[in-house]
């Protein structure tokens, strides 16, 4: 049955309208839907958004809206919000965090070679259209929907958005498994990547976790921990109201120094983290390393839906083993103590395997308007996927476990 589309919900500021009248719903009838592309979440009901976003803190209304209001993700930084929202009878039934991008920074899925190929052939690659959480290589839904049917509808509708905005391409980063299936069915090309995640096997305590390691690997972790503690370092796990403005200020000092040490400008400003602490402290867990009561290093993690997401770290001095202990070992110990099911260690980092994180496939989905480039990229992805899967198999052979 044909699906009827209307263009604009009354409670959202539309900056573009969609001509989707020729589209059909995937599998059966769907009640009338209203689509808009909006430039801000300001007119969207927070509770309705949260009903779609679930417990993933990086998809929370306040997290995304704060990225915009603190001008971390805004047109001036190359992130122009163009969210796709879908309403039925005034109720939000679907949404996508969507941006016009004028560069490829802050994405963690690298398409610089594609942009270069466009440029060498005299074709503009930017602006492109991107569905992602800015600066966050965190897996989660990008097709926020109340039903499987709505998810499939969004996957098709966003292709029409890309065509209507006349972008070179559309990229959806780190979607979850349900999204991946819907995107593949809509005709997107899939790209495989790898991150390193830790899964909680119901360990009674950290020693029970270590018991699963090969003897030499277990010994190495204990030696590294001993070096840190012998240096006089102690740790605090701070969550919720225990995260004071002073702790957040120290964290930001370390966060900035980490970026500058690698020759990069920080993506996020202090105002963002201050707002995050004020509005979402229940989703933050900070590991604070101290010596004689003075802070030395820090790691900021986000928590929600039974998952901890390792995000940022920094230190004021070098101590052997401090990075691993602060970022990974303390996080795993916290997850065991609090019954958290999974710890995602962030982008890249084969070195994380030695601390018990395992290679885990991640995905992105891509559509390219020019059929010549689409065919070339499709061939590249087929070869890359085979190489990634072989790489994951090879990594698994070097796992530290018995």
UniProtKB/TrEMBL annotation:
InterPro entries: Acyl_CoA_acyltransferase, FemAB-like
Signal peptide: none
Domain of life: Bacteria
Name of this chain's protein: GNAT family N-acetyltransferase
SUPFAM superfamilies membership: Acyl-CoA N-acyltransferases (Nat)
Pfam family, one: FemAB_like
């Amino acid at each position: 049955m044909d699906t009827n589309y209307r263009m604009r919900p009354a409670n959202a500021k539309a900056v573009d309208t969609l001509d989707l009248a020729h589209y059909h719903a995937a599998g059966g009838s769907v009640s009338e839907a209203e689509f808009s592309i909006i430039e801000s979440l300001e007119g969207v009901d927070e509770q309705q958004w949260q009903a779609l976003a679930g417990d993933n803190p990086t998809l929370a209304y306040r997290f995304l809206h704060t990225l915009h209001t603190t001008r971390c993700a805004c047109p001036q930084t190359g992130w122009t919000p163009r969210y796709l929202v879908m309403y039925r009878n005034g109720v939000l039934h679907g949404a996508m965090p969507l941006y016009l991008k004028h560069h490829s920074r802050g994405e963690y899925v690298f398409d610089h070679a594609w942009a270069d190929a466009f440029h060498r052939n005299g074709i503009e690659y930017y602006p492109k259209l991107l569905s992602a959480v800015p600066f966050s290589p965190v897996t989660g839904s990008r097709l926020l929907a109340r039903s499987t049917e709505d998810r499939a509808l969004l996957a098709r509708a966003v292709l029409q958005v890309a065509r209507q905005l006349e972008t070179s391409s559309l990229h959806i980063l780190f979607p979850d498994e349900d999204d991946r299936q819907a995107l593949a069915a809509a005709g997107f090309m899939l790209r495989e990547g790898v991150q390193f995640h830790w899964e909680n096997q119901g360990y009674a305590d950290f020693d029970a976790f270590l018991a699963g390691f090969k003897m030499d690997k277990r010994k190495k972790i204990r030696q590294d921990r001993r070096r840190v503690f012998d240096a006089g370092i102690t740790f605090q796990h701070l969550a919720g109201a225990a995260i004071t403005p002073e702790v957040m200020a120290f964290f930001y000092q370390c966060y900035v120094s980490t970026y500058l040490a690698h020759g990069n400008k920080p993506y996020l400003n202090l105002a963002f983290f201050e707002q995050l602490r004020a509005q979402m402290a229940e989703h933050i867990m900070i590991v604070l390393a101290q010596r004689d009561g003075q802070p030395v290093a820090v790691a900021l993690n986000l928590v929600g839906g039974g998952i901890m997401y390792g995000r940022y770290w920094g230190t004021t001095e070098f101590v052997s083993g401090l990075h691993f202990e602060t970022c990974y070992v303390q996080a795993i110990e916290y997850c065991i103590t609090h019954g958290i099911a999974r710890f995602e260690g962030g982008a890249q980092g084969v070195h994380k395997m030695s601390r018990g994180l395992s290679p885990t496939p991640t995905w992105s989905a891509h559509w390219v308007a020019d059929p010549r480039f689409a065919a070339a990229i499709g061939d590249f992805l087929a070869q890359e996927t085979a190489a990634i899967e072989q790489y994951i198999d090879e990594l698994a052979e070097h796992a530290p476990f018995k």
